[in-house]
Amino acid sequence: MNPVSSRTERTRSPRGRRSWLVCLLAMMLSTVAPSLAQTQSQPQHLVQNQDGRPLSLDQAVALALDSDEQIQQMVETLAGARADVLAAGAGRLPQVALNGAWTRNLKKPAFFLPPEFAAAFGGASSVEAGRDWDLKAAASVTLNLWTAGRLSHARALAEQGVEAVRRQQALARDAVRFRVTRAYWDLLLAGERVRIAEQALALAQEGRRVAEAAHAEGHASRFELLRADVELTNRQAPLVQARNQQRLKELALLRLCGLEPGTNLLLTSELKAAPAPEAEDVLLERMHRDSPELRALEHKVKAAELATDLARAGSGPVVQLQGTYAVQGQWDDDLFPGGDETAGSLNAALGVSWPLFDGLATKAATQKREADLRVARLEYTRAVRDRELGVRQARTNLENARLALEGRREGVELATEAHRLAVIRKENGLATPLELLDAELALTMARVQLAEALHDANIAAASLELAVGGSEEK
User: Fold this and answer.
1) Which of 212, 208, 202, 213 shows the shortest CA–CA distance to 236?
2) Using an 8 Å Cβ cutoff, are 246 and 187 in contact?
3) Domains of the chain: which residue ranges?
4) Regions of the chain where pLDDT drops below 50
5) Do 463 and 394 contact (CB within 8 A), yes or no?
6) Dihedral of CA 214/220/226/229: which sign?
7) Closest CA to 196 of 419, 411, 38, 373
8) What CA–CA distance (Å, rounded) separates 92 from 165?
9) Residue of 176, 171, 147, 169 lying closest to 82 (CA atoms)
10) Which CATH class is domain 18-93+147-317+354-473?
11) What is the DSSP code (8-state) at residue 48?
12) Nearest to residue 259, comparing CAs of 272, 250, 271?
């Protein structure tokens, strides 16, 4: 090659390269501008696929509350607890019983007589007792007049069990509500990551095309082309991972909502900035008042107190009123007795039963119930302290998430300005296409971080509500 010609090419190459790259830049920007405009026009919420079953967050929560197996189990447990109340109150009502027997004596029993009495019965040594048919029937009524507190304590104990189950059911509903909220926001974030990964791959593909064209014209080095190839390869795996993660998050939400795994969802709720938390004292007061866990443990403590009183009542007397009407008869030959072959009796009794000494069984049962009561009180104290700590931690996490969100918004503004300047620099020939690509990717990462910060802030707000408890009390 002529050295003069080579020097001439090197001298003219910067200007020719500049004008040629400006043309390529215009083509590149015309390709990616629509997607960038869409992204910049919606910075605060996540874009979803428009095909699928519309599902808002409230609808997802309602579906989960209707289909959750644990809540359904709690419904049945509540029905069983209410049945225990009926059983405990049964002792206050009269107990009525009927019993009877209609007997055919195929071979009658016999009484054996001493020899000295045999002559009186014609020399027989045994005499048959009864007749061919025998009837015995009785109706009895028993009414507890006083049980030393056994019945009242047993019923109150059962009622406390019902209230405890109701609070546990509310606690389970709060937990389901939080799980669905977290799954919903997780899926929304996963969809945004897929969209951003697709955009990043499109930018990498366009950068690869521009670098290849520039290299073919001698305006880009092989290093720049190799870098574009590496960037394109590195953008493919994250897109596949993002799509797989989106599918896993969708399956998790479908499971919680009780929907078929093949259902396609269109999430209609949007991630918004979480509101500032209330003052700590207000949150703690609401937690002490509305927390289903604490209310359930309070009923558990009351139940333990009643169980202790019930055990002590075992040493007291029981007074009952009893009445019985009985009919008996015996006859031969016919299937039914005659009018003078039956007789009736009626009696009433006032019974008292007092266990003066039961081998220390009542004392042992009382000591066991007193130990259970101490355990219940300690459990309540532990739960209160854990709840207070959980509320304080959740509130702090929400404040941190809100501060991080503000930082991410500023990061997006900074990346947007850097991208704008990179475009201007490239239009004036002061930056390479790969430098512009770096600015595009930095803006993409800033938007990913903003979406994650929005997600984290909303999860922190839901965690605070779970820690306070009593969502259904509002």
Assistant:
1) 202
2) yes
3) 18-93+147-317+354-473
4) 1-49
5) yes
6) negative
7) 38
8) 24
9) 169
10) mainly alpha
11) -
12) 250
Say how far apart CA 419 and CA 227 lie, in whole Å: 20
Residues in the chain: 474
295: its two tokens: 């209310």
Expressed in angstroms, the distance from the first to the final Cα of the chain is 85
Calpha distance 290→292 (Å, rounded): 6
Q: Which two tokens stand for residue 138?
A: 């009785």
Tokens of 384: 């209160």
DSSP assignment of 91-139 equals GGS-EEEEEEEEEE-SS--EEEPPHHHHGGGTT-SEEE-S-SEEEEEEE
pLDDT at position 101 is 94
Query: Which are the contacts of 443, defined by CB distance < 8 A and separation ≥ 6?
Result: 412, 415, 416, 418, 419
> Cα separation of 426 and 440, whole Å?
13
Summarize pLDDT for 45-89 with one digit per residue, the tens. Answer: 444 445 678 999 999 999 999 999 999 999 999 999 999 999 999
Neighbouring residues of 304: CB distance < 8 A, sequence distance ≥ 6: 369, 372, 373, 375, 376, 377
CB distance 95 to 175 below 8 Å: no
Angle between helix 433-468 and helix 361-427 axes, rounded to 10 deg: 160
Per-residue DSSP letter, 148: T
CA-CA distance, 83 to 162, in Å (whole number)?
9
What number of other Cβ atoms are within 10 A of residue 20's Cβ? 16
The model's pLDDT over 122-161, given as tens digits with 9 standing for 90+, comes to 666 677 778 889 999 999 999 999 999 999 999 999 999 9
| Closest of 198, 213, 201 to residue 25, by C-alpha | 213
Question: What is the pTM for the complete model shown?
Answer: 0.77
Distance CA 121, CA 266 (A): 102
